[in-house]
Specification:
heterodimer, A: 263 residues, mainly alpha, MetI-like fold, B: alpha/beta, six-stranded mixed beta sheet, three-stranded antiparallel beta sheet, 7 helices
Amino acid sequence: MSETQPTVTFRGRGFVPATKRWAPWLAFVLIIAAWEFASDTGLLPSLFMPSPHEVLLALYSLLVDGKLFVHIGASLQRIVGGWLLGSFAGLCFGFAMGIFVLARSVGLPVVAALFPIPKIALLPLFILWFGIGEPSKIATIALGVFFPTVVSTYSAVDNVPRNLIRMAQSFGLSTPAIVWKVILPGAMPGILSGFRISSSIALILVVAAEMIGTQVGIGAFVLAAGNLMQTDQLVAGVVLLSLLGLTISWLLGIAEKTLLRWR
Amino acid sequence: MQVVLDGVGYAYGDLPVLDGVSFSVAEGETAALIGPSGCGKSTLLNLVGGLLQQQVGRVSTPGAPPAGCLNPLTFVFQDFALLPWRSVAGNVALALEHHGLGRKEREGRINEVLTLCGLADFADALPRQLSGGMRQRVGIARAIAVKPAVLLMDEPLSALDAQTRELLMEDLVAIWARERTTTLYVTHNLSEAVRLADKVVVLSRRPGRIKRVVEVPVPVFERHKLDHAAALQALQDELWGLIKTEAQVADREVQDV
């Protein structure tokens, strides 16, 4: 009798953490199509929001007159310079704080006090110190990158399993060898995810820093376009920033895949 | 090399965990250290291995290490302590790299211990690809690669399932037959102690004191024979009788450390 012997029904459906490959592309296409449609029918006045094809045209004209690479080049130079400087210093301080008791005791409160300062507020000070040119911009980015790098490096080093360090000690490895062979690779996942945060901070700060005292760079370009109500240029600049951010995170993804193959 | 403990005591802050522990492990002998949980077995092992600062009493290691010994006091850890980013061969190499061996000798030693531990086919595998038993074989291979004078084994089989444990015990007996290393073996598993040790040191509850030292009368290599089974079981029951009440108390204890 089926009434007295009911079949078990499946009730474990859903809540699967999977993604569909085509879904994001479709969503992009739909959003841009809807945007284009709204602009073409006049729902979206082009003074306030240019249509996608106007943005494309603006990007194309930038490409043709060669200014595209001037702006991107200037911004990239500042990002790379500031990010390298800030990351290097941040890694050194983070490692010191993770390894040495004294550095940690001094470093933690100092970092806690300075981390919350919006670094862009210090730009005028840096302009006074370093002049209005490149060094003040690079210093702003470097400082903005420094603090999150210190914090993520410190906690990454702190989270390297103690048992691995004790194992290395029990085999008589020297302190530098332990740092190089155990702590550095063990902290690498945390350091790389710190790089994701610090690179996006560098992108934010470069735009802000370029709004003072320069004619080139994506930030300067966006500001100038805004002042002249050239919204197609403005949105084109924003698209460039998004592409730049995507490229950086793609590069970091490659670095993670190569360096963390063991996970 | 022998291990001699003379009145060893240790306290974490106000909490004494070891008190006046004296015994010695002779050259080539295997001593198992058993006792209820929290009796300071691992603390004792870390004191012997120099991973904890000695407080009271003295740990000494009279006698010369064997020829070619790179790291006289060598641990095998309960959680294996393998570097997840290094291959099996790389993990063994870690113990050798800082000793200035020639490339040829280093690779020779690595191949030798990997073969001895049945890992020759897994030299390039990463730890995450291996079963628990294979991971601990890597831990053992790494330890014998430095030709230790004293092996300090901290519950080496406790993280493994019962079947794997049986297999590894056989391997350990085979390795000891070859290397004749002095061994201090911490375990909470009485059958492991009775199967592997020449003598069993029974510790009391915290603070750990020596309750009794029991010699296992049957030679290690004959213990698998059926005619010894009854005697070994009787010995295991005797050991259980020694620690049962304390194990019960330890089990009901609220941790406040």
